[in-house]
Amino acid sequence: MDDDRNTLNAAQLQRALTEAQRELATARGDLDNLRGLVIGIGQAFVPEALIGAAGDEPHAYKKLTTAPIAHLIINAATDKVRRLTAFADGLDVANRERVIQQILGSAASEWTKNPLVERLYAEVESERAARRAAEERARVAEAETQKTRAQMETTWRDHATAKTELGELRKQMDHLTQARAVAVPVETPAVATPTPSPVIAPPVAAFPIAKPVTAPARIISSSNGDDPLNAVGAEWREGARQLIVLLATRGVCERPRLARILATECGVGDGQPNHLRVNRAFEDAEKAALIEVVKPRSEIGMGRAPHLIRLSDAGRIAATRVLGVEPAPSELDRLLKAHDTPEHVVLILGTRDVFLEKYPEPIERVDIFPVAVGLEGDKRYEADVAVQLKSGAILYIECERATPKNRDQRRDKWGKYFKVTGGRFFIVTPDARAMSDISSEITEWHFQHRGNVSLRMTNLHDVLDAKPATFWKMEREMKEMKIG
Fold first, then answer.
1. Engineering a disulfide at 431: which of 192, 240, 327, 461 sits with its beta carbon 3.0 to 4.6 angstroms away?
2. Burial status of residue 294 (CB atoms within 10 A of its CB: 0-12, 13-18, 19 or more)
3. What does the mean pLDDT of the chain come to?
4. Which residues does residue 396 pair with via DSSP β-bridges, in sequence order?
5. Three-state helix/strand/coil letters over the chain
6. Spelled out in words, what is the top-level CATH class assigned to the domain 216-329?
């Protein structure tokens, strides 16, 4: 309730501050218009005064405030009238007026009374008062905003402290539960583990997978005594069940993506991927030994690499027996089978994401399990990632890391890549250092190879930067070397 009240007060103060700033801007605009009118009068009647005030710098008088300019014009006009009336000494009033009118083009009374200047002074003073009032309102609104902001920060700190204390209390309760279980052991009859029937894995589509998670209420058992999640508190059990269903139905392996789906599609944690209930879903499933967590090393130089999640053997059995879901093949298992390390898997998944989110051309699909291309001599070429553009063009992407290489295998790899793509190389690396290493390797290979190569390279570190200038960080046209 306090947070809502503080938020409301902050919103009201922000609106008041915005209104005061709008009034201040209007007052400033009116003042600028009046200032222009004053300068226009001076330029029309006493231009010599403004020129004299400027000195060697043209238009220097415009740096003066409105009041000094008005005084300058009044004094110059008065002096001009005084000097002009000297020509009319000895004349009667009517003739003097006529002479001055001929000289000035206007009656002398218009100069001596200056009604326009008097009105201008009154308007300027009124605008000054309005400006001072607007500035005062803006100052008061800003002070109130700062005060409310300080109160909200104090509330947030108190909330964080309470959250920390709640976590400590939960740990103590877990310890008490474990101690009670040790003190009063419960005899649990052994349950024979049935051998799961062979799972016929359906073909897994390229990202994004269209099949949604089936609603938990229709597929989750409600009272099975052998539920491995019974050890988890009832209030948290639902999130862990949702995670098992998600892994079993979609095969997704990236923890951040799993968290987003849990929050936005499964309703865990009020739509917030970083919610406590989302995090507890992973913790509870791991405690129950239903999932395996792979923690790759980060190679892009920004934060840590995403954890990779898959069902454990117990998790697959639980999904089949307890939840009634036939597990789909895991992305992680399939990628590790085709590639060498978890770090390479992370690079491939990151490549898929940056093409979907940041590539400048419209994309039809990104496939991290592309179909192999047959070559002569029973050889095959398998790209790491295949990107199909809306235009119909297909980009075969190689995801390369800065690791020791077998030279013969690498020469064979680039040769097959050349045959399939016609020399159009698209390379993604974790960072700029790996990009430089792979560029040198390709340059050395090309020196001994016949054919032109169009090389495009980028790296995840630079593409994920806040404001990347271009998607491809290196573009080279490598012509065939002709000797002799």
1. 461
2. middle
3. 77
4. 386
5. CHHHHHHHHHHHHHHHHHHHHHHHHHHHHHHHHHHHHHHHHHHHHCHHHHHHHHCCCCCHHHHCCHHHHHHHHHHHHHHHHHHHHHHHCCCCHHHHHHHHHHHHCCCHHHHHHCHHHHHHHHHHHHHHHHHHHHHHHHHHHHHHHHHHHHHHHHHHHHHHHHHHHHHHHHHHHHHHHHHHHHHCCCCCCCCCCCCCCCCCCCCCCCECCCCCCCCHHHHCCCCCCCCHHHHCCHHHHHHHHHHHHHHHHHCCCEHHHHHHHHHHCCCCCCCCCCCHHHHHHHHHHHHCCCEEEECCCCCCCCCCCCCEEEECHHHHHHHHHCCCCCCCCCHHHHHHHHCCCHHHHHHHHHHHHHHHHHCCCCEEEEECCCCCEEEHHHEEECCCEEEEECCCCEEEEEECCCCCCCHHHHHHHHHHHHHHHCCEEEEEECCHHHHHHHHHHHHHHHHCCCCCEEEEEEEHHHHCCCCCCCCCCEEEEECCCCCC
6. mainly alpha
**If one looks up domain 339-478 in CATH, what number appears?**
3.40.1350
Q: How confident is the model at residue 467 (pLDDT cuts 50, 70, 90)?
A: low
- Per-residue pLDDT tens digits for 421-435: 999 999 999 999 999
Query: Is the pLDDT score of 103 beyond 90?
Result: no
